[in-house]
Design a protein that fits this description.
- The protein is of the alpha/beta class.
- The chain has two domains: 181 residues, no CATH class; 148 residues, Rossmann fold.
- It is built from ten helices and 15 strands.
- The longest helix has 16 residues.
């Protein structure tokens, strides 16, 4: 999005920035999702693909004479003959703004916030009048941890931080606020650079995670073997762990295929902030690891449990299948989910009839 926005602004091409501002019912993207577009091209997205080109064209036309408009889309097939119908069963509002250099700076700051180990909050305030929309943005919690904003915004932010998701609210008769939750960086640390680590590295990278691969075997721990990793470390375990970053959204996977090496890494991780630690191998190997850990005079923090075997039971024992199952388990753990099928969690007819229910695919 940043690259496209920079090109459009530099060439004085009338592009737009679209933000998923509010939603009712089921939607494909979460609140706060953004898209930079010009008719015929876009980056980012505000739907599952059914709206992007229409929004690019309609948004460009609508913002020729005003800096911002709100576009609405729903599931009703008779709502507007010229408007695409959402296939996911919900209705949304998109804030579409004429692209400016200020938006480029905003996207750059959002990108910087998404690379931090602490979450950030950005408020987008829209005031409506009979003639136009007034849009202002304010960082309420910065990447450095500092906070700002009014008492009302502070109250809203408490709920956003607690739920770890963006939230839209209406204040008075003419003001709407979207508090955008920018999650902290997810770090995936892979210890062991064997062939089975490569698909896990690729999947983690595709999810936007900061993936690091470490191994004491320099012939395996190379950037050429792991082109999707942010960093590849060929060093002894103590040096490698000392060079890595850790946070509340850090997952570590032990896949050295050596009980001694896994135990050594595990002992070093005991002193670090890690949310998830898993080891390849059957349950009895996990017990052996814990015994080796005790022999080294170390123990895990009370809030971290060594998982093994790792991954969800998907029935695929290929390296790629195992990587998918491990990544899925990590996702569920970091998001506080039980990894149950969505169709078992809620009757879709009930969900569709409940105002404000937003299920994100």
């Amino acid at each position: 999005m940043i690259a496209l926005a920079q090109r459009l602004v530099a060439s004085n091409t009338p592009g737009t920035l679209s933000t998923l501002f509010s939603a009712r019912g089921s939607t494909y993207r979460p609140l706060g999702a953004m898209m930079v577009s010009f008719p015929g091209t876009h980056a980012g997205g505000v739907s599952g693909g059914c709206l992007e080109e229409h929004v690019a064209r309609a948004g460009e036309r609508a913002t020729r004479n005003t800096p911002a408009v709100m576009l609405r889309f729903s599931t009703h097939p008779d709502s507007d003959a010229d408007t695409p119908v959402l296939g996911c069963g919900g209705s949304i509002e998109l804030l579409v703004e004429r692209l400016t250099s200020d938006h480029v700076a905003l996207l750059e700051r959002l990108a910087d916030a998404s690379e931090r180990d602490e979450y950030s909050l950005l408020a987008c305030v829209v005031k409506r009048s009979s003639q136009s929309l007034s849009v202002t943005r304010e960082w309420l919690r910065h990447a450095d941890g500092s906070s700002s904003g009014t008492n009302e915004l502070a109250r809203i932010c408490e709920g956003v931080a607690r739920d770890a998701r963006s939230h839209h609210t209406t204040v008075g008769v003419d003001t709407d606020i979207l508090v955008h939750y920018v999650p902290p960086l997810t770090r995936l640390l892979i210890f062991g650079a064997g062939d089975d680590a490569r698909p896990l590295c690729e999947i983690g990278s595709s999810l936007g995670w900061h993936v690091s691969v470490a191994d004491r075997r320099a012939r395996l721990a190379t950037q050429a073997r792991f082109p999707h990793a942010r960093e590849v470390l060929a060093a002894d375990w103590a040096e490698a762990v000392a060079a890595l970053g850790f946070s509340q959204r850090t997952a570590a996977v032990l896949m050295t295929h050596s009980l001694e090496d896994d135990a050594r890494v595990l002992s070093l991780l005991c002193r670090r902030q890690v949310s998830y630690i898993g080891a390849l191998g059957p349950a009895h190997r996990r017990q052996w690891l814990l015994e080796e850990l005790a022999a080294l005079g170390a123990r895990l923090n009370d809030d971290v449990r060594l998982k093994g075997p790792i991954g969800l039971d998907l029935g695929d024992r290929s390296a790629a299948g195992i990587a998918v199952s491990v990544a899925a388990e990590i996702l569920a753990h970091l998001n506080g989910r039980a990894a149950r099928p969505l169709h078992e969690q809620m009757d879709p007819t009930t969900a569709a009839s409940r105002p404000g229910v937003c299920r994100v695919a």
